[in-house]
Write a structure and sequence with these properties.
By secondary structure, the chain is α+β, with helices and mostly antiparallel strands. It has 21 helices and seven strands.
Length: about 650
């Protein structure tokens, strides 16, 4: 809608009476604009930033107060309205001066209205106004609008010198701008800023006249001696996909991070990357808004990339068929998948261009895409079979080895990884997840799934056992015997005999003590004071019985030795002549030995008859020493020596 100056002035005068609403929040921040709606709960404020506007909803509970205040734009408009009131519209100097003021304040619409109303007063005024308008548009970089203003003047007066001079200056600037657009585009492209380069190239083609385009193109040499359209296509096909890096993106299932417990991702097979579904692996953003002049060169460029990637895929497939080292198979398989998807992505892009374009013929690329897809499905099946066979053979070897799966923990993990990758690549033989597997592999898939789950459970169990083993060792080193023993007991209950053999070897490597012996020492340490050693496991029991009786014998020997020393004080004629400390220690040692001997008889371990009798005899001997120590305190040295029976 166009307004005359009088109408605009009336509007502006109305605006001077209006005011911006400043909403001050309780946190001290403000929202300045126009209140559009109010409710009991909230108000809606229209806020402006330059020419952009947005609405903001503010809760009443957050508002401290609302005040009226003119915005900067309203202040300018009010100032302009005041200047217009005193303006002599017939005085060209005044009009031009006010117009320049408007331009300095970016009130371009107001300046244009001033100039047009002044230009309507006569031919001389029209000439002056059109040159002023053209200058304003020229300074804003709007060459098309500036030239239109000058054309309107030159159509009336072809000899107007000011108009001709300005037109020449604009023409020279346009030429320079055209050349600058190209050189900037080439520079940006060389720096990898392809999106910005493409904007410059499209601006050159769409906004520069054919005459200036030709002049600029004659002065510019494009990389690789490409023509303009070819360079545009090259740049367009190097605008990076915003979703990935070179066609691969982080696997959304595992987030591109290896599981700390070593579990392999069932989505990416442990590669940690997947082909980008947004660009189809091409690594570039799909061209949008392609114009007719771009189509032919763009189609050729896409087809060249598709053909090159299809050839690369065949090379990768050949490499995989040559039986590469097992440790390289997963990485090579993903590389081949990426090449196949890239080729199909380029062919799909070419077909999309063909479907959208009517004026330029682009060949049907669907047969080429289908051929690559068929080749990839066949390769995926072979990869699935290779990983499947590799995993099954390795698993059979693990089971046949006498040491058991825990001792072969790394080998079991490798089996698990191969089986999972087998399922991953079998899955890629289907175009959609809900599609059935090809008949040739359906039975293999059915048997592989439970096997992969079984091996995964073994890996998980191994990881838990080894983690618990390390924790138990740390607790033992920290002298937390009860905690260490508890963890070792849980490990023993969860482990097979093969596992325990391996763990004992591992314990010997780390501590020079077998697992059962280490548990025996910990159990004795935990229960020695109360002679309550808890429920021993069958695994540790022989070692613990040997350790317990050895400790009891050692303590009994100390008690016997102490008692013998006590008897040397008898017959001296001195009441209680033996040192009190000696008597106390002897009695305490005998008491410990007795309790430990008695505890050994409660443990469900088959002691030989002679051993059991020897233990009973030692208990009786310790009781005799204890009783004599008690009488010693009362009557002095009146006991006789004892005999050390001993238990081997």
């Amino acid at each position: 809608m166009k307004f005359g100056l009088a109408t605009l002035l009336a509007i502006l005068i109305g605006l001077t009476a209006a005011s911006a609403d400043v909403v001050t929040l309780r946190d001290g921040s403000t929202r300045e604009g126009k209140i559009l709606r109010e409710t009991d709960e909230a108000i809606v404020v229209e806020v402006a930033s330059g020419s952009a506007k947005a609405t903001v909803t503010v809760s009443r509970a957050d508002i401290d107060h609302i005040e009226k205040k003119l915005t900067e734009q309203e202040k300018l408009e009010a100032e302009f309205a005041g200047k217009v009131k005193g303006l002599d519209k017939t005085d060209g100097d005044q009009v031009m001066a006010l117009g320049k003021w408007c331009i300095s304040k970016k009130l371009y619409d107001e300046a244009a209205l001033l100039y047009r109303e002044f230009g309507a007063k006569g031919d001389a005024q029209f000439a002056r106004a059109q040159v002023a308008l053209a200058n304003m548009e020229y300074e804003r970089g709007r060459f098309v609008q500036a030239k239109a203003c000058l054309k309107a003047l030159l159509d009336k007066n072809p000899k107007d010198l000011d108009a001709k001079l300005l037109a020449d200056r604009i023409s020279e600037d346009e030429k320079a701008q055209a050349l600058r657009l190209l050189t900037d585009a080439i520079d940006l492209s060389s720096k990898g800023k392809t999106a910005a380069s493409l904007e410059k190239l499209e601006a050159f083609h769409n906004h520069v006249s054919e005459e200036f385009q030709k002049t600029a193109l004659e002065k510019v040499l494009f990389p690789g001696e490409m023509k303009f359209a070819e360079f545009v296509a090259d740049v367009q096909l190097r605008v990076a996909c915003p979703n990935c890096k070179e066609g691969a993106r982080v696997c959304p299932a595992c987030k591109g991070k290896a599981d700390p417990d070593g579990a392999i991702c069932k989505s990416c097979g442990g590669v940690l990357s997947v082909v980008c579904d947004r660009c189809g692996g091409t690594g570039v953003a799909k061209p949008e808004g392609v114009e007719d002049w771009e189509v032919a060169a763009l189609a050729r460029a896409i087809e060249n990339r598709a053909s090159a990637e299809a050839a690369e895929f065949l090379l990768q497939a050949a490499t995989l068929s040559a039986n590469p080292p097992k440790e390289q198979l997963a990485a090579l398989a993903f590389k081949a998948e990426l090449s196949a998807d890239r080729a199909m992505g380029w062919y799909s892009m070419l077909q999309a261009l063909a479907d959208k374009t009517k004026s330029v013929t682009v060949r049907d690329s669907r047969p080429d895409r289908d051929a690559v897809q068929k080749q990839w499905v066949a390769l995926a099946q072979k990869l699935g079979e290779a990983f499947d066979k590799q995993g099954r053979v390795a698993w059979d070897k693990v089971r046949e080895t006498a040491t058991g799966p825990l001792a072969q923990e790394k080998a079991v993990r490798a089996v698990r990884d191969d089986l999972v990758r087998g399922l991953v690549y079998y899955g890629k033989t289907r175009l959609r997840e809900k599609d059935p597997y090809p008949a040739a592999i359906a039975r293999d898939v059915d048997s592989l799934k439970p096997l992969a789950e079984q091996v995964a459970q073994v890996v998980e169990k191994n990881a838990k056992i080894l983690k618990a083993f390390d924790l138990a060792l740390k607790q033992a080193y920290a002298k937390k015997a009860a905690s260490a023993l508890d963890i070792f007991v849980q490990i023993v209950k969860a482990s097979s005999k093969q596992d325990l053999v391996y763990l004992s070897q591992l314990m010997t490597q780390k501590t020079n003590t077998g697992l059962a012996d280490a548990m025996a020492a910990l159990r004795f340490e935990v229960g020695r004071e109360k002679a309550d050693f808890g429920e021993t496991t069958e695994y540790e029991r022989p070692a613990f019985m040997k350790y317990l009786l050895a400790q009891a014998d050692a303590m009994a020997a100390q008690a016997e030795n102490g008692y013998q020393n006590m008897t040397t004080y008898s017959g001296t004629g001195k009441r209680n002549s033996a040192p009190t400390g000696l008597v106390h220690d002897t009695r305490e040692n005998a008491d410990h030995a007795k309790k430990w001997y008695k505890a050994s008889l409660t443990i469900p371990y088959p002691l030989a008859t002679d051993k059991r009798k020897a233990v009973s005899d030692q208990i009786a001997e310790m009781n005799r020493i204890i009783d004599n120590c008690a009488r010693w305190y009362i009557g002095g040295g009146n006991a006789t020596g004892g005999t050390n029976i001993g238990i081997n």
